[in-house]
């Protein structure tokens, strides 16, 4: 039986990845996380979760020595761009040190595990229209601290592959959406505010930032399926974009959610919700991923957004739910 270890298993993509891997009876899934996060009650069967700080090299070495995984999906990260502007060094350290500890432990323990490292489309920065869609050969020119941390992760993985022969895959994930995503991100934030307005928990007013930005959105269920396929079929050392291959504006995302709302919601622009630097259009060239794995997205964008709104409608009915403030953070990650 193959053993798969997921870092950040209690986070957004981590939980969805665990659910996908558990669809197979020949995979033993375990995970590590800094805290319990969203929990894993939705999984079809229990998984062992270690609560640990991956910035602790000794803790990482002990974890890998004990679990001896065949596959490691490294998803743990500080993934919010606005938070990175507020704390650049904290984001860099939080994203780079854990990966370094994993790579170094693999070398020191001589473990033959395959490691999949998840970076981001933010490594590419603001790509001019004539160079779209963005291929893996595009220059790495991040325009925010989060993107810098992801470039470091990407290149650190490549360095350990070249210098130590670590079996590593470099994934550059574009925007993904789905249930249990933090409301720090645009689709979840819009859906949460609409659900609260429907329930009378907030005024029917939705404050927004830049609605003209276009992003490449993919359902998280399709994203984690791509991760699993790459783990099986990807070429060590190579980088792979994971996205839909289609750009959609934040305005369109908002319009879809407003069309699903049961109440009329007024939209207001708010200057404080704008980023210091914002790429106008982001869209992935996913031909390498498709050639390698045969993967293609299966869940329609509108269905993804419907699922997000249903999730928040259910969530706000839970005992102890605390409504968001009208000025809750909103940025189109």
The overall average pLDDT, rounded, is 94
CATH fold-type name of the domain at 2-176 and 220-242: Rossmann fold
What CATH architecture label of the domain at 2-176 and 220-242 applies? Answer: 3-Layer(aba) Sandwich
Compute the CA-based radius of gyration.
Answer: 19 Å
Spatial strand arrangement across the major sheet:
3-2-1-4-5-6-11
Number of helices: 10
Overview of the structural elements:
This protein has helices at 12-21, 57-67, 81-86, 88-109, 145-164, 186-198, 220-233, 250-260, 287-293, 301-315; strands at residues 2-7, 27-33, 48-51, 71-74, 114-120, 167-173, 176-177, 205-208, 214-215, 218-219, 239-242, 248-249, 266-269. By secondary structure, it is of the alpha/beta class. The chain has a domain at 2-176 and 220-242: NAD(P)-binding Rossmann-like Domain (Rossmann fold), CATH 3.40.50. The longest helix has 22 residues, at 88-109. The radius of gyration is 19 Å and the shape is globular. The protein starts with a strand and ends in an 18-residue tail after the last helix.
Furnish the topology, listing elements before pairings.
Blueprint lengths: L1 E6 L4 H10 L5 E7 L14 E4 L5 H11 L3 E4 L6 H6 L1 H22 L4 E7 L24 H20 L2 E7 L2 E2 L8 H13 L6 E4 L5 E2 L2 E2 H14 L5 E4 L5 E2 H11 L5 E4 L17 H7 L7 H15 L18
Parallel strand pairs: 1-2, 1-4, 2-3, 4-5, 5-6, 6-11, 7-10, 8-13
Antiparallel strand pairs: 9-12
Helix pairs in contact: 1-7, 2-4, 4-5, 6-8, 6-10, 8-10
């Amino acid at each position: 039986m193959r053993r798969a270890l997921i870092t950040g298993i209690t986070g957004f993509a981590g939980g969805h990845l665990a659910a996908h891997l558990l669809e197979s009876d020949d995979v033993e899934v375990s995970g590590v996380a800094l805290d319990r996060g969203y929990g894993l009650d939705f999984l079809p069967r229990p998984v062992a979760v270690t609560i640990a700080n991956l910035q602790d090299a000794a803790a990482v070495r002990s974890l890998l020595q004990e679990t001896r995984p065949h596959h490691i999906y490294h998803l743990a990260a500080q993934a919010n761009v606005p938070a990175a502007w507020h704390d650049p060094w904290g984001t860099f350290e939080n994203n780079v040190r854990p990966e370094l500890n994993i790579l170094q432990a693999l070398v020191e323990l001589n473990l033959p595990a395959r490691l999949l490292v998840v970076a981001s489309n933010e490594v590419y920065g603001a790509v001019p229209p004539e160079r779209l869609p963005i291929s893996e050969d595009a220059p790495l020119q991040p325009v925010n601290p989060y993107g810098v941390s992801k470039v470091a992760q990407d290149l650190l993985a490549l360095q350990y592959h070249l210098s130590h022969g670590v079996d590593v895959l470099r994934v550059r994930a574009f925007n993904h959406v789905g249930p249990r995503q933090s409301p720090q991100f645009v689709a979840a934030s819009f859906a949460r505010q609409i659900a609260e307005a429907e329930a009378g928990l907030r005024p029917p007013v939705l404050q927004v930032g830049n609605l003209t930005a276009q992003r490449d959105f993919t359902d998280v269920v399709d994203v984690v399926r791509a991760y699993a396929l790459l783990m099986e079929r990807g070429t060590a050392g190579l980088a792979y974009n994971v996205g839909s291959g289609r750009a959609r504006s934040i305005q369109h995302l908002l319009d879809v959610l407003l069309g699903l709302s049961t109440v009329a919601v007024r939209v207001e622009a708010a200057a404080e919700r704008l980023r210091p630097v914002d790429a106008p259009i982001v869209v992935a060239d996913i031909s390498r991923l498709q050639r390698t794995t045969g993967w293609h997205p299966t869940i329609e964008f509108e269905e993804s957004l419907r699922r997000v709104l249903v999730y928040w409608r259910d969530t706000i009915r839970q005992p102890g739910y605390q409504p968001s403030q009208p000025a809750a953070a909103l940025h189109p990650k």
